[in-house]
Specification:
Elements lengths: L2 E5 L1 E5 L2 E7 L4 E2 L3 E5 L6 H8 L8 E5 L8 E4 L11 H10 L8 H13 L15 H13 L5 E5 L7 H18 L2 E5 L3 H7 L2 E6 L2 E6 L1 H4 L2 H8 L3 E5 L5 E5 L2 E2 L1
Parallel strand pairs: 5-9, 5-10, 7-8, 8-9
Antiparallel strand pairs: 1-4, 1-6, 2-3, 10-11, 12-13, 13-14
């Protein structure tokens, strides 16, 4: 099974080291890892470093299970699209990226499966440029999922979606991680969704890792006060997941 471990990882923007000291235990295939932290904490920078888009110190240890797959796939926060393609064409191109261009029935079936699960089949033949922000985000999620990588880096993949769609998308990604044995790292601001779906939580603040581990070991009232500057408590819900209450209001 695939495993990913970060060893004292850092990232440069120009000559400035903006992220440093990121060390994790082995992250295992099938796990959802929520990467949390305040704005400008370094979450996007960390993802770009893991994806190979930025340089920096430290190491990335990745044990791959299938050398024919794209090992790491990265969905950036900016999902704007200028290409003159339909939704379906863009997802098909993502599926075949880095592999032979021949398309077989298995490719088409999996693309259809992902599009149906994300409820974007009705817009399959619309141009990317005609989509709303939320629709573009769903298409970007589909483009990442159909690559079936060992590791998915998803930078705020649900930020433009309403609550119902957020739960749909995160539930599907959770199921795909389990089924395919992928590691899914999701940068997310909604701590309730992190508590609901994540197997581990990686907390970053001021460009450094503060904690990495079980969600309830990381997301604590003391951490929320220190990092986010809010007084909050963690409560168990009747639906078997925990949520954050800030000043008597669910965050």
């Amino acid at each position: 099974m695939v495993a990913l471990q970060l060893d004292d990882l850092g990232a440069y923007y120009g000559k400035k080291l903006t992220v440093s000291g990121i060390s994790t235990p082995p992250l295992q295939g099938g796990e959802i890892v929520a990467v949390i932290g305040p704005n400008a904490a370094g979450k996007s920078t960390l993802f770009k470093r893991i994806a190979g888009l930025l340089k920096g110190p430290g190491g990335i240890r990745l044990t791959e299970t299938d050398k024919g797959k794209k090992a790491i796939s990265y969905m950036p926060q900016d999902t704007s699209a200028n290409a003159v393609l339909t939704v379906y064409e863009s997802i098909l191109l993502a599926r075949k990226q880095g592999s032979a261009w021949s398309v077989d029935d298995a490719d088409l079936r999996f693309i259809d499966h992902v599009m149906q699960a994300l409820n974007i089949t009705p817009i399959a033949f619309r141009d990317l440029g005609a989509l709303s922000g939320g629709q573009r985000q769903l298409v970007s999620v589909a483009q990442t999922l159909v690559r079936e990588p060992d590791v998915m880096l998803m930078d705020e993949p649900t930020s433009a979606l309403d609550l119902h769609r957020q739960v749909e998308v995160l539930s599907f990604m959770h199921a795909q991680a389990r089924q395919k044995g992928m590691i899914v790292l999701i940068a997310i601001h909604d701590l309730n969704q992190a508590l609901r779906f994540a197997d581990k939580v990686l907390l970053i603040a001021d460009g450094r890792m503060r904690a990495c581990g079980d969600p309830l070991d990381v997301v604590t009232p003391a951490m929320l006060r220190q990092v986010y500057g809010v007084d909050a408590r963690i409560e168990k819900c009747s639906r078997q997941f925990d949520h954050v209450i800030v000043d008597g209001v669910a965050a």
